[in-house]
Amino acid sequence: MGATVHQAVTLQFKAMNNQAEYVALIAGLNFALSIAVKRVQVFSNSQLVVNQVNRLFETKDEVLRKYPQLARPLISQFEDFSLTHIPREENQVADRLAKEGLPDLRRTQVFERPSFECTEVSSEEQPPCWMDRILSYLKNGTQPEDRQEAQKLKLVCAKYTLVDGELYRRSYAKPLTRCLRPEEALKIMEAVHRGECEIHARGRSLVMRILRQGFFWPNIHKDAQVFVEKCSQCQYYADMQRQPAGYLKPINSSWPFAVWGLDFLGPMPTTIKNYKWILVAVDYFTKWIEAKPLTQPNA
User: Fold this and answer.
1) Which of 101, 235, 247, 279 has the maximum number of C-beta atoms within 10 A of its C-beta?
2) Can you tell me the distance from the alpha carbon of 224 to that of 230, in angstroms, rounded to the nearest whole number?
3) Residue 149: enclosing H or E segment and its boundaries?
């Protein structure tokens, strides 16, 4: 018997039950591929999803017809795969987890938009980009003649894999993330930055939302910052500091132990006595430091 791993998915867009089942299926397949699983048995209480993936019948719903196109390339990467329908009353463990949720949010994937909306990118002739050398090596074994450069390329390519001809980056903390070309990255940034509610995510928040959606490119932090700086609405309405910069004014003390500075440090690793915060006091005159461990950050 192996270990049991729980992975939760949170949808931040309106979705039907069958659509949520498809998102969970695709997220689970990506997670299985990221940990090198070769054989998978999937059980679902959605008869529509099971029969559609197994090609027993097709649906007329335009949205649901797009999900098998995302799932089947992932399924083809497994040596053995089966998808079986299970009655709802026999699926109590999954139902209980869905109602209670996972306390560890790091094991929760958040989808702000349907995956097929972010992946509908033109497949026309693409200009050269950072992915070309990696794709050439993984597909054809092409590498530079210089021995050192070839070794560097091998080390870089070890972080990537091919799924149905598409380049994905491996990760220790989350499933495979799809690598994007510059023009694809721009469309993804526009979609995620705008969001369903015109949230206009900025900087690090925008980067984390893109990564949670399952996309990656090397200069994502720099590109996100430049993209936000070019957004006129963000520059006009953003909550940023507009007061002119001034000189720092240090706090002076005329004699020892007259003026103290207090601050909390933590949370630290919990000790045997349940201490995990430190109250630090510094005398402004002598720079003398006093520290006291606390269980809670209050006076």
Assistant:
1) 279
2) 10
3) helix 147-157
In a domain, 126, yes or no: no
Cα R_g (the chain), whole angstroms: 26
Domain total of the chain: 3
Q: Which residue has the tokens 């969970």?
A: 24
Pick from 86, 116, 146: which residue ends a domain? 116
Domain co-membership, 180 together with 232:
yes
Spans of the chain below 50 pLDDT: 1, 105-106, 120-124
What is the spatial distance between Cα 217 and Cα 178, in angstroms, rounded to a whole number?
A: 8
Tell me, yes or no, whether 244 lies in a domain.
Answer: no
Domain that holds residue 94: 8-116
pLDDT computed for residue 237 by the predictor: 66
Confidence (pLDDT) at 123: 41
Query: 109 — phi, psi (to 5°)?
Result: -90, 135
Residue 175's contacts (CB-CB under 8 Å, 6 or more residues apart) are 27, 30, 31, 33, 34, 109, 214
Both 109 and 12 in a single domain?
A: yes
Amino acid at 73: P
- What pLDDT is stored for residue 101 in this prediction? 57
Structure tokens, 8:
């939760």
- Regarding whether 279 and 208 lie in a shared domain, the answer is no
Distance of CA 118 to the CA centre of its chain: 14
Within-domain flag for 218: yes
Q: What is the pLDDT of residue 296?
A: 83
DSSP character for 290? E
Task: Decide if 125 is inside a domain.
Answer: no
How far apart are the C-alpha atoms of 174 and 212, rounded to whole Å?
9
Residue 98 structure tokens: 């869905």
Q: Residues 19, 21, 24, 25: is their CA dihedral positive or negative?
A: negative
